Amino acid sequence: MMTMNTHAQEMLRESENKAIHLKMIEFNVRGNDVVATFLYEDLFEAEDVHLAPRPKDPMFLHVDELDEVTQVLGEKGIAYQVRNDEFI
User: Fold this and answer.
1) Global confidence as pTM
2) Which top-rank group of organisms is this from (predicted)?
3) Which of 36, 74, 78, 86 is the most buried (most CB within 10 A)?
């Protein structure tokens, strides 16, 4: 049995975080590098901004991991978008 990619495991844990509502994950691909950015619903519904949940920092992965990670997210019903950053 193949183990799940550690990045995918971390993304699943973040999607299960009840203190903060993950809207989707955006993957920005540039060459062999991928930056996964976590996008949330409104983070500051609490009256005290000092108690507001902290969003997760972006994750960095290799392009070879992207298919496995997006497959897991798709199976779990977690929204994501893949963007290819192309510069002139």
Assistant:
1) 0.80
2) Bacteria
3) 36
Helix (H) or strand (E) holding 12: helix 6-15
Give the Cα separation of 47 and 2 in Å (integer): 45
φ, ψ (nearest 5 deg) of residue 36: -100, 120
Any domain includes 64: yes
pLDDT in tens, the chain (88 residues): 456 788 899 999 999 988 788 899 999 999 999 999 999 887 556 566 666 667 788 999 999 999 999 999 999 999 999 999 776 5
Instruction: Classify residue 1: in a domain, yes or no.
Output: no
How is residue 14 written in tokens?
A: 């973040």
> Residue type for 22, please?
L
